[in-house]
């Protein structure tokens, strides 16, 4: 485990998966991260790379060859190297190797850089194509925040508030983890989503084409919550395990396969393309209060 801190907050990150496991606001002594109970959901904040969500039959096709990848890819289970570490910043690095090339035929460098500034944590995800051909990939985040957050509050005392008024449906997920083609109304000319455990009885809320790039966790019962900025991420997932005491805010550059996918990686919805020697960076930031 590695720690970064400043005068206001402290973060703990595991080199396995470069996974954020704890985020404490020193003034209120609250840890905002889910504690990772394995009986419920044993993760805290897994990184999603080189795919987001589930592939049809856990497989995809590239250059006529069939490859197999598990849900959300392999990065969350890999040991990252520490490339840089100071008091308030740490950078983790994962490079392609023989194991990754067997399931993802591209050479790459994948970095996660955690930086503290006052009461905020910024997480930059960088992908570099170190190969000689076009690289196709998805990347995303999956941080789980403890809910209820403050003592004396309940799950339904909290809401998510977006920075734009939204009219957007959710895209249901099939039993096989694929995106179905008939969206269901969710947000109707509003910027607020009241939280309840019933929301997640049928898996994640998958949102596309939102105007918002900021979502805030708020409550009428406590002043404590957070602001979550996710510019440049075209998809957003909101999820909790059934009846679990957390909520995941998941910004994605990529999405699970649709039920009618042709499984061609280069034609996959939301896929990112990276020329040789080029890099791709997206940053999400959480501000605690």
From TrEMBL:
<protein>
    <submittedName>
        <fullName>Aldose epimerase</fullName>
    </submittedName>
</protein>
<dbReference type="InterPro" id="IPR037481">
    <property type="entry name" value="LacX"/>
</dbReference>
<dbReference type="Pfam" id="PF01263">
    <property type="entry name" value="Aldose_epim"/>
</dbReference>
<dbReference type="GO" id="GO:0005975">
    <property type="term" value="P:carbohydrate metabolic process"/>
</dbReference>
<dbReference type="GO" id="GO:0030246">
    <property type="term" value="F:carbohydrate binding"/>
</dbReference>
<dbReference type="GO" id="GO:0016853">
    <property type="term" value="F:isomerase activity"/>
</dbReference>
<dbReference type="InterPro" id="IPR014718">
    <property type="entry name" value="GH-type_carb-bd"/>
</dbReference>
<keyword id="KW-0106">Calcium</keyword>
<dbReference type="InterPro" id="IPR011013">
    <property type="entry name" value="Gal_mutarotase_sf_dom"/>
</dbReference>
<comment type="subunit">
    <text>Monomer.</text>
</comment>
<dbReference type="InterPro" id="IPR008183">
    <property type="entry name" value="Aldose_1/G6P_1-epimerase"/>
</dbReference>
């Amino acid at each position: 485990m590695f720690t970064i801190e400043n005068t206001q907050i402290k973060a703990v990150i595991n080199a396995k998966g470069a996974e954020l496991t704890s985020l404490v606001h020193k003034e209120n002594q609250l840890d905002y991260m889910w504690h990772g109970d394995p009986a419920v959901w044993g993760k805290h904040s897994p990184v999603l790379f080189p795919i987001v969500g589930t592939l049809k039959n856990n497989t995809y096709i590239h250059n006529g060859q069939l490859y197999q990848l598990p849900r959300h890819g392999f990065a969350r289970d890999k040991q990252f190297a520490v490339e840089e570490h100071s008091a308030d910043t740490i950078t983790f690095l994962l490079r392609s190797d023989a194991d990754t090339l067997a399931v993802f035929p591209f050479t790459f460098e994948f970095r996660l850089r955690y930086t503290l500034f006052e009461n905020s944590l910024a997480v930059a995800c960088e992908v570099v194509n170190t190969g000689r051909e076009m690289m196709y990939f998805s990347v995303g985040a999956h941080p789980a925040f403890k809910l209820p957050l403050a003592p004396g509050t309940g799950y339904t005392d909290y809401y998510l508030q977006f920075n734009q008024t939204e009219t957007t449906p959710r895209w249901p997920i099939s039993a096989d983890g694929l995106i179905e083609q008939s969206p269901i109304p969710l947000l109707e000319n509003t910027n607020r989503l009241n939280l309840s455990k019933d929301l997640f009885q049928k898996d994640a809320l998958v949102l596309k084409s939102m105007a918002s790039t900021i979502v805030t966790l708020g409550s009428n019962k406590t002043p404590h919550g957070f602001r979550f900025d996710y510019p440049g991420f075209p998809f957003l997932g909101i999820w909790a395990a059934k009846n679990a005491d957390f909520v995941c805010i998941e910004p994605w550059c990529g999405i699970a396969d649709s039920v009618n996918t042709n499984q061609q990686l280069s034609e996959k919805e939301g896929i990112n393309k990276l020329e040789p020697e080029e890099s791709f960076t997206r940053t999400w930031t959480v501000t605690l209060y």
